[in-house]
Structures are given as C-alpha cells and as structure tokens.
C-alpha cells in the first residue's frame, strides 16, 4: 500500500504525538459514522501509546452508532459542557477529525480556539481552513477520514496494536461514508484495507446490519410516508425535494438518526441526478439541508451557493434560517439555477 504521509509529515506527526500527554479528539457536530469511527480508531492507537485520550463531540451521535465499542465513553459537549471545557483547557493536543473548519463545531468552537493546545487536522473535506492547525493531513480524494486514519496508522506502525474494536470503528467509518461501498469507493486499495481490517477479526456483515438494518417500525412507516406523500420531482425527474417538519417527526416517534439515509432513496429513480432533503432541526430554529447527487453533479457548489454549507461533490449539506415554505422555495430556485447541469 502506498504511503500516505510524506517524510516531513511523518516526522511532524510523530513529534506532535510524542510531545502530547493529554489528547482530545473531536469531530463535527452531528457526528456520523465516519466522524465517530475515525475518532474511536485513532483514540485506540493513542491510548495504546500510553496517552490520556478524551473523545469529545459537540452533539450526540445517532442511536444506530451506539454499538460502536468505546462510544459509551464519548463526551458530548451539549450534555457535559463543563467537563468538556475543562478537558479542552487542560489538553496538550486537539485532533480535529472529519471536518475542515472550526465553525462546524458550533458552540464548542470557541473553547477549541481558546485552548493553548496544539492542533492537528485529519480530514477528507475539500479546502480545509489553513488556520485550523499547523499540521493538516488533508486528502479529499479519499473515501473517508477513517480510511486516512487507517493509512496513517499502517504507515506509523499502529496496525500491529490495532484490536478488533479499533478495526470495527474504522470499518464503520469507511462503510458509512461510501454508502456501504457504493460510491466514492473505486480505489482498489480500499479493498486491501478491508482485508487488513478483516484480519483483525471484525464481522463486517454484522457491522452493516448494525448500521443499516437497525431501524424501528415507525422509522419504516416514516420512510414510506416521506416517499409517498412528501417527495416532489423536478427538472424532468432529474431532481427531487422532500421536506420533513418537526410535527411529522413527532408523529412518527422520531429518534436521532431516523432521517438519515432517506435522502439517498430518490436517487434510485432512473435518470435522477440530485436529491434534496429539507428537515426542521429538532434543537435549533433552522432547516437542515442534505444534498446527494450522482456522477459529476456538484452538490457542494450548490450547497455553498444556496444553503450556507458545503461538502463533497456527491454528498453535501448546509442549513437555512427560514421557515419551511421559504426553504422549499430556495431549493426550487437552486434546481432552476442548476438545471443545465442536471
Ligand atoms: P449530511 O447530508 O450527511 O448531513 O452531510 C453530507 C456531507 O455534507 C457531510 O459529510 C459534510 O461534508 C457536508 N456538510 C453537511 N452539513 C454541512 C454544513 O453545515 N456545512 C458544510 N460546510 N458542510 C456540510
Ligand atoms: Mn467523513
């Protein structure tokens, strides 16, 4: 497998880790499988080196990730702000995984900035903010931050001490960010990595079921409702929008994570290039926007231009500070503006 770190990066990373006794790892708000998986996988490596490691996320992960070994020890800033602030103050190193701008930590960002700790970024989003850290290991061409973490550990000798738990976390991150290896996953080396992870004794089929086949009956009804009642097609069925309100979430006994993945369903329609999901946030007065596309349709550009967000070519997100009816109009305008690319 090819080396991921240049000789300078390798030296700089080893030095950064060596100098730190207390380490905090964090990822973006609303941590997904990759945010959780890469953080837990990297945490295991650092703990094996004898470091004192805390994983702190701005907000909780969805229920379908709670099986991840070690997730029970993750600290959520929203739930335990004083503990999180104390740890951020006392730490020597803050590792920022799976995000490219401190603003994606929201309320937690100020405390990361205030801390005198050195910072390290490991990420696969485009164009990381150069002020985030001295050492930024950025690989937008890679499937997931978890893949980057695996490659780093493999290069610096962390594979030997990796346990089945660490391997499961990394596998989970790679699997979720590629939709079960159905997109962003054509690099043949990904399958070498999977082979290495399997050699640690992970049950990849069970990991798939834990994540993708772990819904409640009401979520199944909710999915049916959204597809039947809420989904609208545009641009000769090459684009679609659906919206989900708080009332609807309540009606279907929504729990965190239930809305995840629904945005991928419209892409099953022949010729569909873009799917837009608009969902009222359950905690803040904003509409969360998720975009998914296929081939060369740039949903990150659309997210930047219309939805105060960004992301990857085929998977992006953002948010709108409007009521739902205005958000729908904005999404319709976005489709109209991009119709030549659809
Ligand atoms: P999701 O639709 O799963 O929430 O997000 C898909 C991808 O879009 C994420 O992996 C991330 O790259 C990007 N993304 C989601 N929300 C935001 C946002 O608010 N701002 C930015 N810059 N990117 C986002
Ligand atoms: Mn990711």
Describe this protein's structure.
- With 342 residues, this protein is α/β, with parallel strands linked by helices.
- It folds into two domains: 7-212, Alpha-Beta Complex (inorganic pyrophosphatase (n-terminal core)); 217-341, Diaminopimelate Epimerase, Chain A, domain 1 (Roll).
- Helices cover 39% and strands 17% of the residues.
- The chain has helices at 7-19, 33-48, 81-90, 109-114, 145-156, 164-177, 189-198, 204-212, 217-230, 246-251, 299-306, 324-337; strands at 22-26, 52-57, 75-76, 93-97, 118-123, 135-138, 232-234, 239-244, 274-280, 287-293, 310-311, 315-320.
- The protein has a six-stranded parallel beta sheet with strand order 3-2-1-4-5-6, sandwiched between helices. It has a six-stranded mixed beta sheet with strand order 7-8-9-10-12-11.
- Helix 2 runs antiparallel to helix 6 (164-177).
- The radius of gyration is 20 Å and the shape is globular.
- It starts with 6 loop residues before the first helix and ends in a 5-residue tail after the last helix.
């Amino acid at each position: 497998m090819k080396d991921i770190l240049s000789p300078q990066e390798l030296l700089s990373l080893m030095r950064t880790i060596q100098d730190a006794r207390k380490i905090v790892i964090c990822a973006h708000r609303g941590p997904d499988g990759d945010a959780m998986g890469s953080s837990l996988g990297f945490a295991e490596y650092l703990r094996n080196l004898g470091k004192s490691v805390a994983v702190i996320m701005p907000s909780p992960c969805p229920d379908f990730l709670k099986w991840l070994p070690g997730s029970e020890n993750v600290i959520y800033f929203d739930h335990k702000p004083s503990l999180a602030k104390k740890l951020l103050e006392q730490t020597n190193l803050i590792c920022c995984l799976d995000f490219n701008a401190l603003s994606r930590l929201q309320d937690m960002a100020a405390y990361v900035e205030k801390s005198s700790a050195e910072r390290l970024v490991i990420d696969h989003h485009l164009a990381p903010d150069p002020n985030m850290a001295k050492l930024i290991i950025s690989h937008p061409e890679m499937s997931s931050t978890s893949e980057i973490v695996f490659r780093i550990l493999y290069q610096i000798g962390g594979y030997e001490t990796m346990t089945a738990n660490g391997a499961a976390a990394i596998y989970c991150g790679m699997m979720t960010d590629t939709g079960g290896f159905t997109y962003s996953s054509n690099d043949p080396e990904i399958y070498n990595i999977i082979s290495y992870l399997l050699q640690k004794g992970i049950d990849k089929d069970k990991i798939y079921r834990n994540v993708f086949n772990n819904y409640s009956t009401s979520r199944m009804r909710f999915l049916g409702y959204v597809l039947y009642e809420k989904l609208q097609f545009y641009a000769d069925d090459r684009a679609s929008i659906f919206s989900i309100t708080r009332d609807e979430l309540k009606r279907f006994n929504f729990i965190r994570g239930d809305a995840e993945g629904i945005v991928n369903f419209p892409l099953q329609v022949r010729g569909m290039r873009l799917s837009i999901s608009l969902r009222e946030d359950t905690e803040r007065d904003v509409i969360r926007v998720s975009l998914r596309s296929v081939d060369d349709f740039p949903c990150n550009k659309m997210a930047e231009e219309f939805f105060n967000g960004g992301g990857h070519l085929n998977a992006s997100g953002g948010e709108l500070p409007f009521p739902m009816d205005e958000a729908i109009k904005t999404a319709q305008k976005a489709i109209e503006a991009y119709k030549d690319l659809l």
